[in-house]
Amino acid sequence: VDGFLVGGASLDADEFAAGGQVHVDLHDVDVLRLADDLDYDIGKLRELLAYAKRVTLERDAKLVKLHDFIAGKVRRPYNSGNRKVLVFTAFADTADYLFEELAPVLKSELGLECAEVTGDRNRTYSLKLSRTTFEEVLCHFSPVSKELAEEDRALGEVDVLFATDCISEGQNLQDCDCLVNYDIHCFPVRIIQRFSCIDRLGSTNKPFQPVAFRPDIDLDE
Predict the structure, then answer these.
(1) Which has the closest alpha carbon to 160: 206, 207, 203, 104?
(2) CA 210 centroid distance within chain
(3) Is the pLDDT at 103 greater than 50, yes or no?
(4) pLDDT value at position 19?
(5) CA 172 from chain center: how many Å?
(6) Rounded to whole angstroms, what are the CA distances from 157 to 46, 105, 161, 165, 174?
(7) pLDDT band of 160, cuts 50, 70, 90
(8) How, if at all, do strands 209-212 and 114-117 pair?
(9) What's the CA gap between 208 and 198, in Å, rounded?
(10) Rounded Cα distance, 164 and 167, in Å
């Protein structure tokens, strides 16, 4: 064939004669077999999408478990008066989801102020900050260790922080005494780096509580 139809437009095969280190001439492609393979892939993707759509808020047991854990920690703190929880996830989309679904509930039920830091998105739920920068949100989550000025502390504090690994290194967040790994990072050292955010010199918290949500044992299968 001299050309291919993509999205209704005809493309010359010579435009795609090479790619990366592997050189492929699309004149040699078996178009009928390629079409069959693409149909198969599309079918599998539709199956996966159907599975994903079954996970609604009402059926998201993992989200419910996180909510119940945070509520239990606040009602029975490890260190007197400490209501802070740091929740790590490897994915910004997951952090968005957790913040959007749990922030209103935790605020109305327990008066907890939630925030999110992913690098691209830094926000609080109802806390009115002059700026919602990366550092500003972290300062209001851990005002003592971050040495936040008294006049700024008057604005209020963040109790629950949902974050990605953009803050897993070099951050002083010792005001917090509880860290939740909502997912297990593929790089094991990252788990240690996450916990080192709160288990640092200068902390007055004893003990600390690390928590990990382990993947289902059937995941690999």
Answers:
(1) 104
(2) 17
(3) yes
(4) 53
(5) 20
(6) 44, 17, 11, 21, 14
(7) very high
(8) unpaired
(9) 8
(10) 7
Please give the share of the chain, as a percent, with pLDDT higher than 70.
90
Q: What is the pLDDT of residue 187?
A: 82
Q: Which of 53, 162, 178, 51 is nearest to 97 (CA)?
A: 162
Q: SS3 sequence, the chain? A: CCEEEECCEEEEHHHHCCECCECCCHHHCCHHHHHHHHHHHHHHHHHHHHHHHCCCHHHCHHHHHHHHHHHHHHHCCCCCCCCCEEEECCCHHHHHHHHHHHHHHHHHHHCCCEEEECCCCEEECCCCCCCCCHHHHHHHHCCCCCCCCHHHHCCCCCCEEEECHHHCCCCCCCCCCEEEECCCCCCHHHHHHHHCCCCCCCCCCCCCEEEECCCCCCCCC
Our CA angle for 98, 78, 60, nearest 5°, is 25
Amino acid at 200: R
The encoded tokens of residue 69 equal: 């854990």
Could you tell me the two tokens for 170? 């070099």
**Residue whose C-alpha is closest to residue 113's, from 65, 63, 161, 178:** 161
**Residue whose entry in the numeric block shows the structure tokens 């949100």:** 137
Identify any residues that bridge with 180 across adjacent strands, giving them in sequence order: 87, 211
**pLDDT tens, position by position, 200-213:** 888 888 888 999 99
For residue 10, pLDDT over 70 is answered with: no
* CB contact set of 27 (below 8 Å; sequence gap of 6+): 1, 13
